[in-house]
Amino acid sequence: MAILRPYGDTTGDGMVQVSFTLPMPHSKVADGAGQQLANKMGIDPALVVHSKPMGPDFTFFVIYGRVNHLVDTDQVEVVERDYDLLTPKEVNFAVKKALRRRLTVVGACIGTDAHTVGIDAILNIKGFAGEKGLEYYREIKVVNLGAQVSVPQLVERAHAEKADAVLVSQVVTQRDAHLLNTKEMSAAFREAYPSQKRPLLVVGGPRFDEAMTEELGVDRIFSRGTTPGEVASYLVHALVNRRAS
Amino acid sequence: MAILRPYGDTTGDGMVQVSFTLPMPHSKVADGAGQQLANKMGIDPALVVHSKPMGPDFTFFVIYGRVNHLVDTDQVEVVERDYDLLTPKEVNFAVKKALRRRLTVVGACIGTDAHTVGIDAILNIKGFAGEKGLEYYREIKVVNLGAQVSVPQLVERAHAEKADAVLVSQVVTQRDAHLLNTKEMSAAFREAYPSQKRPLLVVGGPRFDEAMTEELGVDRIFSRGTTPGEVASYLVHALVNRRAS
Amino acid sequence: MKTKLELDPVTVRKARSLARKAGRPIVRMAQQHTTVSVERATLRLAGLQGADPDGSPWANRLMDAVRGDVGLEHGVALPVWDALVRGEAEDLAMLAQKASAGSVRFRLPEGRDATRARAAATKQVGAGLRRIDARRRERERLVKRWGDPEQKPWIYLIVATGDIYEDIPQAQNAARAGADVIAVIRSTGQSLLDFVPEGATREGFAGTYATQENFRLMRAALDESSKELGRYVRLTNYASGLCMPEIATLAGLERLDMMLNDSMYGILFRDINPVRTFVDQRFSRQVHARAGIIINTGEDNYLTTADAVEAAHTVTVSQLLNEYFAKEAGLEDWQLGLGHAFEINPEVPESFRLELAHALLARELFPHAPLKWMPPTRHMTGDVFRGYLLDAFFNLVGAMTGQGILLVGMMTEAVVTPWLSDRDLALQNVRYVLNAAGGLHEDFRPHPDGFIAQRARQVLAESIDLLDAIVDDTLLEAIADGTFGLMKRPADGGRGLDGVAKKAGEYFNPATDLLEAR
Amino acid sequence: MKTKLELDPVTVRKARSLARKAGRPIVRMAQQHTTVSVERATLRLAGLQGADPDGSPWANRLMDAVRGDVGLEHGVALPVWDALVRGEAEDLAMLAQKASAGSVRFRLPEGRDATRARAAATKQVGAGLRRIDARRRERERLVKRWGDPEQKPWIYLIVATGDIYEDIPQAQNAARAGADVIAVIRSTGQSLLDFVPEGATREGFAGTYATQENFRLMRAALDESSKELGRYVRLTNYASGLCMPEIATLAGLERLDMMLNDSMYGILFRDINPVRTFVDQRFSRQVHARAGIIINTGEDNYLTTADAVEAAHTVTVSQLLNEYFAKEAGLEDWQLGLGHAFEINPEVPESFRLELAHALLARELFPHAPLKWMPPTRHMTGDVFRGYLLDAFFNLVGAMTGQGILLVGMMTEAVVTPWLSDRDLALQNVRYVLNAAGGLHEDFRPHPDGFIAQRARQVLAESIDLLDAIVDDTLLEAIADGTFGLMKRPADGGRGLDGVAKKAGEYFNPATDLLEAR
Ligand code: B12
Ligand code: B12
Ligand SMILES: Cc1ncc(COP(=O)(O)O)c(C=O)c1O
Ligand SMILES: Cc1ncc(COP(=O)(O)O)c(C=O)c1O
Prior knowledge:
The complex is a heterotetramer, with 2 copies of chain A and 2 copies of chain C. Chain A has helices at residues 28-40, 88-99, 117-123, 151-161, 177-192, 213-216, 228-244, and strands at residues 3-4, 15-22, 43-54, 58-67, 71-72, 103-110, 140-149, 165-169, 200-204, 220-222. By secondary structure, chain A is of the alpha/beta class.
């Protein structure tokens, strides 16, 4: 199943739906412009099935058509889970065995972002999707700094708590706020720590691309629908291995 | 305003929305495949904001992102109206003057297509969008053959009626039925008539691309939202000019 | 659900008796005529299958040969079984082949020959009917085993790829996603074919050919799904067009569960001759009655060519006529999926409440019929978001007025035949509405003379006036005048009239005899 | 609209008196304290504008200098106008500059000096209040000229580009497309800034900074649109965060029409100190009362962090408290846009009827308040089609329960801040629902002890129990315990406590005096 096309109502028909706005008055030319963009996106034939003026200066389009690109599923690289999912029991056991002390995580929603539901879903006992949060794990000490935490504050607390891992949430993405804040954060930690001692840096949020760890200078990225269990299992995997190496 | 980008919420942000189905089970790889297709369409970054299994073998995607293509409105060729819109009065007058007899149009919905509302909207007195249909024009004789008319029948009637113009409707487009039927029709007319004497061939339907006259071998194509007035004005323009030349 | 409109029973009775008056002459006409398709259906009931090498069915070949020798007016049974009794061939298939090779001549048997032919024909056709009875019992068994849908309305979905092998996975997907009824719509051309294509087909336009083999394949696939889902998934097709009686027969033989089967649709929207249609229609309904098949009528179509507010009463009149013709043919209330639709221009003020009024009127006029509630189509546009919204309010009307069968609307109605994803999104839409607002009808109590009740009464009154007029100058006239869907169809126009004959004195058809017997 | 729930008046009275009991200690506390922002608001009322070269406002510079010399507890007025009367500078701006250059020393005047300072301060601040009065009359004049929206609910739309110059065309487009109220949401950071930025701004995150200049620009643009459209388009911003009192003042001076202004939002969702918030909140509401501004409260937010069914009663309790605090500060019923939201998980059976029950309860508990009905957010996903559907049912609840202000939901809620096209589609959605089903409330008559009425009574009962508990161990305790939105906020925690002081005996503030006078 390596090579695929989108499926409208027949195998291989390649049909897709697109909508967008062009900053130009509604007109035949606008329809043509909408079609041109669709063509450039590889949609041919492209049917402008709906075009509507939005005020004097904008036109909204809905376009259907056959896209001529092929999807090669072998070319897809995704961040597959490269660690086993552990039960809380197993996590606690592994931590005890590897560290011979509790594992400390410091969590926060940094910058001016005040969305705590996401990080709380990971950290609070209440948890998410039926899984209890990290606070529930006997061998994990959770320090949840809440929202709107500045990077310096975060670094300081990480020091003070001797954090093994720092968990940061970013939900607001407008103007790439989440990327900028994350980079600032990771830079600050590289500043403040010798690379050996640096705590594990983990960020999460609904709009992150999990493949961007390099670029953002963090150890792991979690996105939409992450569960606490995944995070706990990853922490064990990463920290135990680290000690190992 | 020659070069444009789509407009999400800021000038130049280039944001678009796309949805499609891939014939593969829902998984992380599927999400990656969806993103890959979006990238190939020129969307980067492409955010898979929704992916949902549809049964075991299909996944549906909604993707948002910034498309990096530019729209060049100067490159758009559209079939602009190259004739003046006339009132019924003016049409009648022009016909009388140019032909010195009534202008005869034979209309039909050919093939197995039974959608008559469109052609009736153009031909019947009742008309469309507040404009009366061609039957209302004193100087136009309308022969409406209705639906499911075979091409031979159509040619025969066109002969019998000495049609100046033949108006054909095609609404069903699945498997390009409308294109195939139109080509068959225009071929038959080229067969049956010396090129001088061939009646004007006009097709219409909601999903035609008005630029395809060449390919379909017709004189004019009308699409979504055509009004009877446009058609009448075009007929005068085309037939009078023809006589002129 | 206690009634919300409290229609005046006297008015309702009046409406029904007018419909009876208007319909009776049509029934008489139907009784006095036969058609090539009725006769071919009789041959198919007797077990004649298959087609010659160029795909024209043996039923047609045999029928044509018989007609060539002795005409249509006596029916096909006497000459055919006379030939068999005479030993011209040892079975129907063989006879058909010989006949088309011109090596049999048919005659009208008389006296004891006729009696023997009648007996033989009755026996063989009777066996066919028993096969249909068996299929009906089988359905009842499977429904008992796998169960009916939990919720009302039943969720009805269309597949339309044109290729039976694409239709099947899509239908199974749809069933998995929650469809209770799957309809395979037909290729655009089929209704005008005067024969039923053979075998599995892959090349329909905007629909898939109705063939016995396609029926079998899809029913088998849905039996699989039913088993998987623990819910009997019903299959629908179209007993309409020039072969209405034969397709009804094949549906009975292949255990289809519902059939689109309107008394006037073919006339109005396929320009099929009115007499032909009414004759075929009566026979096909007798078969459906016998087969325990639920019919769906097509009033929704009128609102695609006429305005849904102005023409609201034509829907009601047509429903009353369809009810009369159906009952006359032996169908029971539970088999009457009378059609109506959410087609009022959404720009019309209070359009939603007008829809509620119309849907309630149908519901309370036909309290025991399932009713088939059809989605917006005419006012759907390429704005698929708006389309998704309109479909939601269509679903809501369905839930608030207790419709029996909900044909799920597609946001791409104005664009393409349904995509896989359209269907999935549409079902999500239905599920939300039924789950979140399913109980709203409890709080929905129109004032006895508020906007909704008044509108309903007005439509009923207009219906009675129209029926009065029809009784005066006949239904055929009304159809010729464009009363329904603004389509003008004269009684002597349209396709297929050449396939109709007035029955001769000694006309004999074991199928009709047996079907009318009960 | 005759009441549908017929709530027991005794129970309702009880709920109100409990809210009064729970709120009174907070009011007393607010009366006994002042904050840096209240004092800066007083300076702004007196006409102090502008900022130093690095953008820190003169109001802050002056306040800080005064505080450095004589502290906050006496208020800023006495020391400042004493200095002016002493001729340290010929106006406030000059004084602020000198003060920040360290070339003025402030003192607490006594006897006749104090009297003179009081008089001068009162005169100058009074002039500021009269400017606000003038703006209010101006609004009344323009509303008379251009008219209010024809329909209820008013249609409320958000713009959020972060750039005032993108906001303006988008706002004007939205108005043209049918918006009656435009809200410019603020950049994520602003609520934690202890100063109000200056000038036109283009670099907000997910919102645009609230500045006096941005207010002016947008109000002017909407005046244009109002004129073009023949309908007075209202402007909304946020009097919240650490500068609540100053922003309320600027809103009054720039003729904003509505302000988000909740008594607890800053505490719960921005972790601002409770005492600071309650003090600031009271002053800002006195200004809003004077300016004829409609406030919007933020109960909707609780349902984004707590479950909308379990926590339904916390919304009601908060509305009752907000009502009490608002009335106490001089606001009238027509100014109370009490918030609530359509946030029940759509998977919950009968979720739509539960929403109806909650919305009706609010409607009938506060019959004379406009009420602000907020769209689904928490359960919105990237499935924009489903989102568009949920928003439609949100709109329908709004229409069926007579809400006053409808904050239009966006199908992209889970994805991005609203796009131009999202807004246009959303308005199309609202228009359809209001036009097609606007009258449905006439047919919507829940049974007196049906599902809806029972649910409403249950929520009211739970609210009374909760209020009882709050009266026993104080509102501050309840907030500390996470009663609202599950957010735990202790009275001594949070930001901005250092900006609070207990008033000294000779505390003087002409603004509060004048505002309380009436
Ligand atoms: C709830 C909510 C709020 C609440 C927040 C309450 C609180 N205390 O958190 C309130 C009402 C206060 C709020 C306010 C605002 N919000 Co808000 N809000 C939302 C909303 C509706 C839901 C977010 C949520 O709770 N999701 C549920 C959680 C469980 O999912 P999640 O965050 O994705 O987290 C999961 C994963 O991402 C992952 N994860 C997340 N973080 C982390 C961290 C780690 C370490 C790991 C391992 C995993 C992980 O695990 C979680 C569980 O699976 C969204 C819209 C939506 N439906 O998504 C808008 C939304 C996020 N808000 C938005 C905005 C703009 C705001 C405001 C800035 C608006 C304004 N200018 O006033 C304000 C100000 C807030 C601020 N200063 O940041 C925008 C963001 C737009 C963008 N893409 O930039 C959104 C998308 C709405 C919109 N379309 O405008 N908001
Ligand atoms: C009404 C309707 C019907 C009615 C037709 C009644 C009648 N007598 O016409 C009924 C119910 C009978 C019907 C049946 C079917 N329909 Co139908 N139908 C529609 C519907 C809802 C509206 C079409 C319409 O009337 N539009 C209004 C007219 C005024 O617009 P118009 O046709 O575009 O015409 C305008 C312009 O295009 C132009 N124009 C059109 N023709 C011409 C000709 C000339 C010369 C000129 C100058 C201009 C011109 O001018 C007109 C005025 O502006 C559409 C869905 C939709 N909302 O579009 C489906 C639709 C067209 N139908 C469809 C299908 C598949 C069918 C069936 C084949 C389904 C089936 N297998 O049973 C059947 C069979 C019909 C057949 N054999 O062809 C599909 C076609 C899919 C596709 N793209 O191929 C559609 C799109 C619905 C869908 N999504 O499945 N249908
Ligand atoms: C009642 C009825 N019969 C038949 C059909 C199908 O038409 P055809 O006979 O062309 O397959 C329809 C289509 O909507 C219908 O409504
Ligand atoms: C009542 C209330 N105040 C204020 C805000 C805005 O928050 P901020 O103060 O961060 O701008 C909101 C956001 O939804 C709100 O609901």
